[in-house]
């Protein structure tokens, strides 16, 4: 019987540190290592089967050999880590039982032994697609929620610009801003994404930044009276153009700079003088600093979803073996909506 | 009698718009135009004799042909304008009488007819040097006050870095931060200024940025545990180095970027990723947005001065003809302390 409980556990491991956007060859699918599907008493851990894994831009920072960040780097030779939705197989933690569905940090592998169970959340909302717990109701959704309500100081009628607007965070920011009574424009990198923004996601307008020669002129076209709130997801040239188009007392919430995920932005930002001229506030934030609001967020955004007031677009890759290309695709804009990897549906 | 009332009125005029740091040759001393020392009834204006004129970095922005700022450009062929302390010669505004000493916007000339009298302030504190009303108790002092208390969110024990620290604003920020219980380091561009910071102005430490090869390493030396508050007066390379040394939840108050007073910073800022990593708040401000606090400021800083808790260093040029070189000197760091031009002592 004991022997039957040991199964193969495929893993995606990081081969070594990098200091650029990741390539598939930076990761390796490791097949053939075994794992016991029973955990030992007294370990206080939870053994899970991973169902859905999240690909997020911040993960690039964990592929660098840099300890000074808010989160330590991955360990070469070990599985990539990230947010996931998982099913509990066996538990030595009284808060979890076999069969529970949980979300939290897990490994890029079929089965994970989770030792730090304090941050695991048991999923209660079974009327919402499971994978949404790493998207709409997970870290990206909460980033949008905390960023928009706590950082952007929105007012009804504010002119809001969202970059990477069809991405995991941007699509929610835009919809929350619309529900708040703002005028919302988004940018994205393909015609398909722009169409989604204008139709399915209900943005007032949207444009493909790759087709624009002069982002300053583009923004003046969409915001002839300027921008009150910029939800910054990309950095670089877009940020520089936005700075030229902010209204007095405008707010810029910075949660990601997907175009700039290295320690040093070679191009540089040139228009910071606008910070004084327009008395701007630029505020960086991490959703993890606002976790006291998480229950309220799940309640409110869950309700919006059930009422049909908010939708969520996912890009689902099938199979653990597709995880490296899914992650790599984030940095070229291949994903349409929140990038998820389905390891198993149950 | 009437004839005797007409006197020569020397003026410093702007010759034409520029888009670089000003040179003395951009201005001209115009001698020989006459002004009547009596104003006509019904004009609601005030005629003043200018005593002290203020040279401030923001004035460079008014020498450009750019209407989109918070303050319109100067008019070529007309006198430069700026803050000044003046004596009322004649008044058709019931709020002012001949002999009153006032501060407010005036012209770079011996006598000015001030039509917009609403912003003129009658000086009440006659135990404080008159010129301090365009420094310690004027716009620069109020910039320091509003910036430190309203923008920097200071806490006792915070580590504060001030650039251009011996300048009109910086010297007050540093002293207010010390009085608040912060650890304060300043940077300046000469040994003389650094000595003043450490002795007369009571900073905990100071350095000459021109003698440092690697500003990042310098800041790590003075702030081994990082910076909580940066009072930004210079921009450019210093801001970039500061970004690498901010502590989590650090605040950057931006009131000036004297090294970057053009529309486009060629060098660029490269380390904005720190905004996310360290959840920084960068906030631009103008003292004019906080004028409701002005009476409280005059009371508090006036009291600090009378109690000997705060000092103020001025660099006084004598004579209107020295005004162009005084203004130009701001952008090469020639001034030691607040740059003032004395047109007349009474």
From TrEMBL, chains A, B:
The keyword Protein biosynthesis does not apply. Residues 168-297 form the Alcohol dehydrogenase-like C-terminal domain. The keyword Oxidoreductase applies. GO terms for molecular function: oxidoreductase activity, acting on the CH-CH group of donors, NAD or NADP as acceptor. It comes from the Eukaryota. Residues 10-122 form the Oxidoreductase N-terminal domain. CDD domains: double_bond_reductase_like. Keywords: Oxidoreductase. This is 2-alkenal reductase (NADP(+)-dependent). The lineage of its organism: Eukaryota, Viridiplantae, Streptophyta, Embryophyta, Tracheophyta.
């Amino acid at each position: 019987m004991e022997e039957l409980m040991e199964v193969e556990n495929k893993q995606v491991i990081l081969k070594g540190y990098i200091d650029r956007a990741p390539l598939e060859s930076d990761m390796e699918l490791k097949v053939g290592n075994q794992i016991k599907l029973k955990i030992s008493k007294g370990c206080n851990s939870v053994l899970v089967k991973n169902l859905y894994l999240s690909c997020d831009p911040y993960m690039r920072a964990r592929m660098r050999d840099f300890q000074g960040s808010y989160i330590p780097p991955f360990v070469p030779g070990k599985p990539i880590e990230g947010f996931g939705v998982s099913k509990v197989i066996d538990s030595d933690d009284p808060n979890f039982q076999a069969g529970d569905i949980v979300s939290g940090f897990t490994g890029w592998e079929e089965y994970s032994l989770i030792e730090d169970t304090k941050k695991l959340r048991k999923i209660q909302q079974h009327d919402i697609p499971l994978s949404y717990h790493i998207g709409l109701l997970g870290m990206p959704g909460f980033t949008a929620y905390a960023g928009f309500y706590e950082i952007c100081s929105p007012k009804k009628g504010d002119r809001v610009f969202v970059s990477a607007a069809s991405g995991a965070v941007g699509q929610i920011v835009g919809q929350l801003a619309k529900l708040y009574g703002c005028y919302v424009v988004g940018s994205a990198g393909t015609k398909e994404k722009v169409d989604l923004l204008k139709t399915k996601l209900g943005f007032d307008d949207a444009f493909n930044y790759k087709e624009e020669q002069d982002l300053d002129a583009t923004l003046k076209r969409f915001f002839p009276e300027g921008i009150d709130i910029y939800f910054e997801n990309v950095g670089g040239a877009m940020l520089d153009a936005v700075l030229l188009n902010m209204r007095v007392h405008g707010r810029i919430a910075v949660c990601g700079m997907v175009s700039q995920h290295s320690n040093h932005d070679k191009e540089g930002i040139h228009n910071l003088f606008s910070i004084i001229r327009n008395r701007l506030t630029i505020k960086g934030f991490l959703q993890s600093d606002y976790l006291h609001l998480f229950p309220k967020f799940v309640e409110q955004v869950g309700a919006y979803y059930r009422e049909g007031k908010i939708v969520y677009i996912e890009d689902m890759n099938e199979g653990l073996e597709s995880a490296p290309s899914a992650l790599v695709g984030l940095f070229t804009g291949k994903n349409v909506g929140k990038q998820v990897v389905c390891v198993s549906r149950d």
